[in-house]
Amino acid sequence: MRVRFLIPAVITALLVALGAFPVSAAPQGTLTLTEGDDFTFAYATSDPHPTNWIGLYRSSGGGPVDEEYVAPSLVWEYAPEAEGTVRLSADSLEPGSHTAFFLARDGYEWLAEPVEVRLSADGPVSFPVSAATLHNARQGQPYEAHLGGLASGGGSGTEFEKVSGDAWIQVSADGILSGTPRASAAREIPAGVSRPDRSSATVTVEATGEDGSTARLDVTVPVRRHNQTLVDELGVMSLNTWHGGTQVNGYHEKQVRFLLESGADVVGLQETQGRHAARLADALGWYHWQGSGSLGVISRYPIAQEYGEVNASGGVRIELDGEESQVNLWNVHLGYTPYGPYDFCFDGMDEERVLEREAESGRTPQITDTLAAMSDQVDAADEVPVLLLGDFNAPSHLDWTEELREKNCGYADVPWPTSVLPTEAGFTDSYRVAHPDPVSAPGHTWSPLYPLHEGSTGREEPQDRIDFVYHAGGLTVLESHDLVVGDPAPVPRHADNEWTTDHAAVLTFYSLTS
Predict the structure, then answer these.
(1) β-strands 214-224, 137-138 pairing
(2) Secondary structure letter of residue 321 according to DSSP
(3) Are 283 and 260 in contact (CB under 8 A)?
(4) 432: phi > 0 → left, psi -120 to 50 → alpha, else beta; which?
(5) Is 324 exposed, middle or buried (0-12, 13-18, 19+ CB in 10 A)?
(6) Kind and range of the H or E element at 284?
(7) Which end of the chain is less packed: N or C, by CB atoms within 10 Å?
(8) How far apart are CA 280 and CA 243, in angstroms?
């Protein structure tokens, strides 16, 4: 049960001034939040219609800010009268800032100025972890990181302050950490540290909730010297979120905790439902690209360019160190049915028919179109490395070997197009660089929640590696892992798992070539 403590604020005038909302004729209706502990809005319009509606969106993205569809609303109800009230259920919502829109006739034309509201969690203020490492800083350059989204509970008026730590770091009341590491501030290197060229700053931050409760977070900021590359190692993850994580109780805090503890810098997300990349980035204080459907990318470092979506994929360019160091990243979520391992293991189809059905599933044309969209970037990968990751919904030819024929239902040497085509285009499977032997390191990502076909019942589910992190260009694999937190219970007993998805994640750490 969440406390529905809400702060209304009419925000359109400011956002229009900033260029965030369209500069069209101001809508003539009104939308206001009523007093009380729920999402009840009073509305009025001179143009009533049975299909006028009020929808709620995360303030960090997804709403119709240009009076056009971006992503589905979180909750909505029709508002058909000339004036009246509408209550939106907050039961399925996570804490944070949301924006309500009063919209016309099942469309996205505004009938009133949007209203921002904030939903706070039950209980005292808390952080999902006791310690967190932020993005890298460099001596002599201004630094900023946003911590406010990490705190939950305590009411809506949570404030932050610095308790202790390096002198150059300041912490504002709204949770912004800032300052400039001094070039002269040489730090003592403890005995046994293998990288004396690296140092870090630390600060303890205390959050105080409106209810008087407090929580502390120990923060580490890696600091590079003034003449060093800002990012020389990069953690890249692919994570299918499984309907955004919503199949598991408390998914938001569990996801944020996992991402903070994983060490990932850049994450390609699938099944975001057009909104969950924005939600996670907002909590983490990261940058994000949110696609209109399944795909999203979150990053500790700025997203400099969005390439848009191309047939089940989407791409961005990420600045790791301004124009000096960048990577191109493409995230895919390929078609899921028909599924090749089922064709082999359940239906005994021959290889020719299974490969035909790979095309019928959409996967073969999807990966073909994606690689075509990336081709110029791959050709220039020695200058700007390229990453290709995601949920491919098909195994790899590197895993269906003669040694694994028995495990793979009597089949071997299957040329799965979704792995063969990226390889032919110049990509390398990072997990198989780190773990060349598929027998000793299968790396299965499907599925920790489906050991059997129905989860807890049914025939044995084929286990396969169907989520990947590929690379081309100046990246060297340091290590790669398939990740699951805890020992998740299978479907249908999954609701209280610490792990919030039915896939394993894949996380590869790279060294960047200077």
Answers:
(1) parallel
(2) B
(3) no
(4) alpha
(5) exposed
(6) helix 276-284
(7) N
(8) 14
As a whole number of angstroms, the distance between CA 342 and CA 143 comes to 51
- Candidates 470, 354, 483, 471; CA nearest to 408 is 354
User: CA-CA distances (angstroms) from residue 158 to 57, 256, 291, 454?
Assistant: 22, 19, 31, 44
Residue with tokens 């809400």: 6
Torsion angle of the four alpha carbons 354, 357, 359, 360, in this order, in degrees rounded to the nearest 10: 180
Strands 326-333 and 386-391: parallel
Q: How far is 363 from 339, CA to CA, in rounded Å?
A: 10
Quote the CA–CA distance of 438 and 431 in Å, as a whole number.
Answer: 10
Task: Decide if pLDDT at 122 tops 90.
Answer: no
Query: Whole-angstrom Cα distance, residue 418 to residue 404?
Result: 19
pTM for the whole structure: 0.85
The pair of structure tokens assigned to 396 is: 């790899």
The upper half-sphere exposure of residue 323, i.e. CA atoms within 13 Å in the direction of its Cβ, equals: 0
Tokens of 488: 């998740």
- Helix (H, G, I), strand (E, B), or coil: what is residue 434? helix
Alpha carbon distance 294, 376 (integer Å): 25
3-state secondary structure of 387: strand
Asked if the bond preceding 338 is cis, omega within 30° of 0, the reply is yes
Q: Which of 135, 237, 149 is nearest to 484 (CA)?
A: 237
β-sheet bridge partners, residue 204: 164, 218
Q: Write b or e for each residue in 278-287: b if 16 or more Cβ atoms lie within 10 A of its Cβ, otherwise e.
A: bbbbbbbbbb
- In single-letter form, the type of residue at position 199 comes to S
Cα–Cα separations (whole angstroms), residue 249 to 39, 149, 298, 430, 497: 22, 19, 22, 32, 8
CA distance 370 to 390: 12
Task: Please give the pLDDT value at position 198.
Answer: 64
Kindly state the tokens that stand for 114.
């949007």
pLDDT in tens, 341-368: 999 999 999 999 999 999 999 999 999 9
Cis peptide before 164 (omega within 30 of 0): no
For the cut 90, the answer to whether the pLDDT of residue 26 exceeds it is no
**Number of other CB atoms surrounding residue 483 within 10 Å:** 16
Consecutive H or E run containing 351: helix 351-360
Rounded average pLDDT over 215-239? 97
Nearest C-alpha neighbor of 81 from the set 109, 51, 56: 51
